[in-house]
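Sanity check

After download, print the first record. It should look like this:
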Amino acid sequence: MSRSPPAADSAGAWILAARPRTLPAAVAPVLVGTGLAASHGALARGPALAAMAGALLIQVGTNFANDYFDFHKGADTDARVGPVRAVHAGLLGSRAVAAGSAGAFLGATACGVYLTAVAGWPVVVIGLASIAAGVLYTGGPVPIGYVGLGDPFVFVFFGLVAVGGTYYVQALTLAPDALLAGAAMGALITAILVVNNLRDMDTDAAAGKRTLAVLLGEVGTRAEFALLVAVAFAIPLVGVVEYGWPSTTLFALATAPLALGPVRAVMARRDPARLNRALGSTARLVALFGILFTLGLVA
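Expected structure tokens:
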């Protein structure tokens, strides 16, 4: 039985618009970057906490922005089978959500000011690029997510930038294996987007939203998902062999059974309800993989 939607303009409506189930995608890369910094003897608690807060605020700001822009561009319709969108459902006004997005990005900027004082000008570049990507994903004249570029942008910003940036603000340098760890997280988090876009292929195409799934078709999208999962699970082994990561890093591979359900759902005949469940399962996989990856690095 589905839950009743929250009351309009309530705290519950704002929580729904923030999309709590997407937040592991913001938290897990910061954990991994911090774990790698700790394994290199460079753990810095203040910058680690600021990076976590900034990542969460950017994710929430992006979610609000997506809610606003998808509504105004006609991508959110009654035919959509995904979770309720606050603006489309009339739970929040579009201007309020736009203001909420701006407020979240302003909070992320405050975190960035502190991190810039700690780690210098590269933080400015990382922060501005991350916020711009969050807005331009569904906003602007040529939205990233509407022209097949969503997947590479998620891989870069949720993987390479998030893990590498977290490592950098603590170690004040960028080690090559930070990018390798970032690739693992980027691959798995991009897999979440792939499930979402496979589910929404028909409604996205009807709205003129040319996601990579729409461009690749079902067969290509299934291949992309399988490749992303395989890359993510191969990277801990590569890190152990090539960069001397602790063998306990392989703890992350214990999450492999959790990947089986989403893989089966993606490879089967397209069923929106089943893909909705696979979306949640993939998000949980990201969270647990990130936690075990981090614990393995510091063990």
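If your output differs, re-run the checksum step. Summary of this record's structure: The mean pLDDT is 92.
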